[in-house]
Design brief:
With about 425 residues, the protein is of the alpha/beta class. It contains 9 helices and 19 strands. InterPro entries: GH (IPR017853).
Length: about 425
């Protein structure tokens, strides 16, 4: 499961991004909550504010732009990249009704182009051009943000792609940003792939979301969906480009266990991921997607999930180590090697007994046989927003190994907890 003979360079913290969760007031959340998790990707567009966005006029758009600007500046403060959500600036944040104007209505993009011109002028006026990424539309296939036929979305995507290339060449364009994972039987995906093949509107980063489907089945495994996507790219003769999953995790998956599982998957596949958020209104603009909470006197404190990302972002240093998941697909780990070999893992939302095989011990300076110490940690979940001040230390066990391989027995007794193991002499 872990191969100490295969070091893969410095940690990249691919999973340390999130959607919204940043207050519009600068420096409201103490900076260490960002730096300790190696925060590196944000995404926002002023959704759920009283101002309704550009579909209500410039005066309704401006507060949303100011909110986005504040979030962008916070991201830049911590060296994080930022994704602009056009649909939220426009006002299609799920609160709009079916009569609200949408790009391409009646075959016209005049109002939409005015909006894009306004946005680009504001971006330039506020020096917002560094590391800018733009989602053309969010989850058009999901039904809540796009209240028009699929064909109108395809026209909007192609029109917006070329318009942005003309007026904002500095930006990276993201797409299609579907809620459904790539699937050769999904007409949204096949129609979009055919579109970009025929008219050349290939995004700079391919984007979709990993959200577990009702009943807990499918939709959340980047290893599977990226494999399907590569097959589709080959089928349509399209180039491979960076993949970005700019929303991951359904509500029941936002626990320490699933966070560790997603981390393992994103790191192995070298794919960026941003945590989803499932709140609305003012709470959307706070709490770092429920990684932190605050007291009645506005003092912020960490949750169990934040402790997982802190361990991942600050403690797991050195080199990433090659890993493989368990044969049943549930248990997975992320590992690094520095002064110690550190392992973070879980069985997603399952419990059970597993073993961690650590091979080629001698490649990291151990002998081919002997005894090492293994310290076990647990990252508990105490409810959404529940305070957790650090991992539970379950103590140190001396474990003998031979034939250049260490076997660590693992019992996962709590489906919401993530676990850590540290190997040292």
């Amino acid at each position: 499961m872990i191969d100490l003979g295969d070091m893969q360079g410095a940690p990249q913290h691919y999973a340390s991004g999130f959607l919204y969760g940043i207050p519009d007031t600068p420096n409201q959340i103490p900076s260490h909550f960002y730096t300790d998790i190696s925060f590196n990707y944000g995404r926002a567009g002023g959704a759920q504010l009283p101002a309704k966005g550009y579909l209500g006029g410039v005066s309704e758009y401006t507060p949303r732009f100011q909110s986005m600007l504040s979030n962008y500046n916070t991201c830049r403060q911590f060296g994080a990249q930022f994704i602009i959500l056009l649909h939220d600036l426009w006002g299609a944040d799920g609160s709009q009704n079916s009569s609200a104007p949408m790009p391409g209505d009646g075959g016209s993009f005049a109002l939409w182009d005015q909006f894009l011109d306004q946005l680009v002028n504001d971006l330039r006026a506020n020096s917002m051009l560094a590391d800018i990424k733009v989602d053309i539309w969010n989850e058009a296939d999901g039904g809540g943000f796009w209240l028009r036929p699929m064909d109108q979305f395809m026209e909007t995507y192609a029109h917006t792609y070329y318009r942005l290339r003309q007026i904002l060449p500095e930006a990276e364009i993201f797409g299609p940003t579907f809620t459904g994972q790539p699937d050769p039987n999904n007409t949204w995906w096949t129609t979009w792939l055919n579109l970009i093949q025929t008219n050349g509107s290939i995004p700079d980063q391919y984007v979709w979301h990993l959200i577990r489907q009702p009943g807990g089945s499918g939709g959340d495994d980047i290893t599977y969906s990226s494999g399907v996507f590569q097959q589709l790219l080959h089928q349509y003769g399209l180039p491979s480009r960076t993949i970005n999953i700019d929303e991951y995790g359904s509500p029941e998956e936002q626990v320490p266990a699933s966070s560790a599982w997603f981390i393992a998957r994103f790191e192995r596949n070298n794919i960026h991921g941003l945590r989803s958020i499932w709140t609305g209104g003012p709470a959307l603009h706070d709490f770092m997607t429920n990684l932190v909470n605050k007291t009645a006197t506005n003092q912020y404190f960490p949750t169990g999930e934040w402790q997982v990302y802190k361990y991942y972002g600050s403690v797991m240093t050195g080199n990433r180590v090659a890993t493989t998941p368990s044969s049943d697909g549930f248990f997975d780990v992320y590992a690094t090697a520095s002064d110690r070999v550190r392992i973070l893992g879980s069985a997603h939302t399952e419990t059970g007994s597993y073993s961690i095989s650590v091979s080629k011990m001698a490649d990291f300076g151990y002998n081919t046989q002997g005894t090492v110490n293994v310290q076990s940690l647990e990252f508990p979940f105490t409810g959404v927003g529940g305070e957790v001040d650090g991992p539970i230390d379950h103590g140190i066990q001396a474990i003998a190994f031979s034939n250049n391989q260490l076997i660590i027995p693992v019992t996962l007794s709590t489906s919401t907890s993530a676990y850590g193991w540290e190997i040292f002499q």
